[in-house]
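Tutorial handout. Part one gives the primary structure; part two gives the three-dimensional structure as C-alpha cells.
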Amino acid sequence: MIKEFLDMLADLLAEKYFERMDDRMKKIPELRRLITAKEASQYLSLSTDTVYRMASLKKLPYLKIGDRVLFDVKALDHWIERNMIREKGWKREELKPSKESDLLGLLKKKAKD
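Part two.
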C-alpha cells in the first residue's frame, strides 16, 4: 500500500515537473535575444523562406554562428522602425471627379441633348 502511494506520488510529481518545464520552454523565446529563422518569420509575419531569402540578400539583419543563422530581436525591431512607412503630417486631398469626367453627369448631359 505504501509502495503504491509512493509510486502514485512520484508519477504526480513527475507530471507536474514536466508541465512546469513545458511552460518555461514556451517562455524562453520571449527571454532570448537571438532567435531562429522560424521564430523570426513568426515575429515578422513572413514565411521562413522569405526570411532566409531577405537575409541572403542582406535586406534583413542576421548573425551567423557556425552553421546557424540567428536573428537579433533588437536588430529586427530597429529594421522594422527603419522600414516603416509613415503617414505624412498632412493628408492628401481626396481626388474628386470633375463634372466633366463624371460618367453620370455625362450621361445626363447627353440625355438632355
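Part three, for discussion. The chain has two domains: 1-31, 32-85. The chain is about 60% helix and 10% strand.
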